[in-house]
Amino acid sequence: MTSTMGARANEPPAVRTAGSAVETITFDDFYHAHFGSVTAQLCAYTGDLGHAQDLAQEAFYRALARWDRLVRYDDPVAWVRKVAWNLAHSRWRRLRTARDYLLRQRRTEAEVAGPTPDRVAIDAALAQLPPNHRRAVILHYLADLSVSQIAAQEGVAEGTVKSWLHRGRAALAALLDENTEGVRDV
Question: Which of 33, 161, 169, 176 is the least buried, fewest Cβ under 10 Å from its Cβ?
Answer without folding.
Answer: 176
